[in-house]
Amino acid sequence: MLSRNRARDEEGAVAVLAGILFSTLFLMAALVVQFGFTRDVRQDSQNAADASALAAALTISTSNASTPDLSAAVAVAISYAQKNTGVAPGTWTACTDPAKLAVVTATTGCVSFDSSTAPTKVRVLIPVRETKTAIGAGAGVRTLGVNAAAEASIAIGQTLKCAMCFLGPVDSGNADYTVSGGSIAVNGDVTMGPNGNLKAIGGAIGVAGTASGGTYTPAATTIRSFTDPWAARTDLPPSTTGLTARTNPCSTGTAGGPGIYGDFAFPKSTCTLQPGLYVVRGAWTESNKSVLAGTGVTLYFTCSTGSTPRPCNSPGELGGYLDAKNGEVAFSAPTSGPLQGVALLYDRSNTRDVGLQGNGGTNITGALYAPRSKLDFNGNSCFGFSGGPIIVDGVIKANGNKSCVEVANPVDATYAVLPGETSLSR
User: Fold this and answer.
1) Greater confidence, 167 or 136?
2) Are 94 and 40 contained in the same domain?
3) Which one of 10, 11, 313, 333 is most buried, by most CB atoms within 10 A?
4) 3-state secondary structure of 232
């Protein structure tokens, strides 16, 4: 009898233990499912934090504003978080971040920056998201709080100036490049011969690449890539309305003066241009002892269909051009009107070069704007400008020990340096 009672008692104990074990296993399985769901929510929050931080960094880096608009960056971060995780904008107000950076806005403490004037980092902490644990409540865990943070680097675009602006690389020989009182900027590599010189007296030399060979005064500094500083000028190219075809720019009669010209070979003497705009769709060439002079003059070299001038086709087309050879070019730009300060102008898609050779030289007062063209010079030839700026694509040859490009009394062009890539830093 005693043994049978003991067996019944053991059978009851096993049932109780089995029930407890089953309940425990069920609870553990439920918690695993719950924690897995919470992990997925956390991953969503992390993705949202990453996207929001990058978006805020990009907003600042591409604004080109003198003072960064932090509020705009915060608004973008909040908007991205709402799109990615459904976090309501109102939840950011009470959000706090113990690890925030130095600067926050009035909107939230969970989007922060390391500086208010020149930020290089932005941190975003997604507000806590509560995930309900219906089954986990049995273990005393009713909700699980989830949040995530990300930090992104900011590469702000810069606004700089140049009096001698090369929109592409400069592969030069032993030529000298000098700006007196201004800066030089090169959007690419610079390769100089052993006797080559790049001088920015009272200014800076910025190179968006490597600087090798020659001498740099002051030392070249690395800048990010930049765009054409005059690309946004809507007054260029100039209007040709009212201009008629002419044949001899040196004539004081009806054959000369401002107008539309094709090919012309200048005589071995001085040709004085009358003030105004000369639209050239062909080749203007000089020879020994040729002198091209004038006051209040703008030369515009462009393309044409037949005898009718038109803008050159993008991305590039061979148009009219100036080849001074061994001659001299000495004229000044208008001092008033829509072309004030613009002396020598190539269409934005004209890929013809601006040429000198031998003992040729220029003494031009005003700007040279030929963004798709190169300066082609050698021997003792020298491009001399007063005022400027010079805005060209690059150079060709430039292999004479006395060949040069010089800008005096510079008028700088302002250009924006493209921002670098934003990236997650934490």
Assistant:
1) 167
2) yes
3) 333
4) coil
Backbone φ and ψ for 211, nearest 5 degrees, come out as -120, 115
Burial state string for 261-294 with b = 16 or more CB within 10 A and e = fewer than 16: bbebebeeeebbbbebbbbbbebbbbeeebbbbb
Q: What is the pLDDT of residues 260-300, one digit of tens each?
A: 999 999 999 999 999 999 999 999 999 988 999 999 999 99
Question: Could you give the CA distance from residue 398 to residue 186 in angstroms, rounded to a whole number?
Answer: 16
Q: Are residues 170 and 103 in the same domain?
A: no
- Domain span at residue 115 reads 2-153
pLDDT at 45 over 90: no
- Residue 389 host element (H or E): strand 382-397
Give the C-alpha distances (Å, rounded to integers) separating 66 from 7, 76, 152.
88, 19, 21
Note the pLDDT of residue 374. Answer: 96
Residues linked to residue 162 through DSSP beta bridges, in sequence order: 413
Within this chain, do residues 97 and 165 fall inside the same structural domain, yes or no? no
pLDDT-based confidence at residue 41 (cuts at 50, 70, 90) = low
Res 338: pLDDT: 94
Cβ density class 352-377: b for 16+ within 10 Å, e for less: bbbbbbbebbbbbbbbbbbbbbbbbb
165 with 295, same domain: the answer is yes
Q: Taking each helix axis from N to C terminus, what angle separates 2-61 and 70-85, rounded to the nearest 10 degrees?
A: 140
User: The pTM is what?
Assistant: 0.71
